[in-house]
Amino acid sequence: MGATKHEIYRKDVVKIAELLKAIAHPARLKAVLLIANSTDEDLTAKDIQKEIPLSQSTIAQHLKQLRDSGLVETQLRTIDKVNHLCYRINLQALNQIKKLIELLIKKSTIKQDDNVETLRNFYSKLQAITNWNQSFES
User: Fold this and answer.
1) Where does the HTH arsR-type domain start and stop, copy by copy (predicted)?
2) Which of 81, 116, 121, 133 could disulfide-pair with 91, CB 3.0 to 4.6 Å?
3) Contact status, residue 37 vs residue 133, Cβ threshold 8 Å
4) Which residues, at least 6 apart from 71, have a Cβ–Cβ distance to it below 8 Å?
5) Into how many domains does the chain fold?
6) Tell me: the pLDDT tens digits for 31-51?
């Protein structure tokens, strides 16, 4: 049997790959954007399900993968006398993705075209999210 990824690659490389894998599905990416854009309150799975037309069990699986990767954090909250698992972005994980994108932009020799502009637009949205999330740092 061959070597595992943990034996071949540094821990930080494996971690960033896991973060990227976590957002590599449209439903999970949309969930991350919903969670990040919810600046006034944490979101519950029910709130997220209202915006993503998938079954409750599918949403739960996607949220578990985001949580397991470390991209989102959870906290048990009581809302109207009912306990809910609430989600928020993990700023440190988001900053790791941001640093990777910064490195790619800096090191890239891609000529200026629509793809570079798309990457820059994504980066500027990521920058806005990470700046907002500073208010949640402990």
Assistant:
1) 8-112
2) 133
3) no
4) 19, 22, 23, 32, 89, 90, 93, 94
5) 1
6) 999 998 886 777 899 999 999
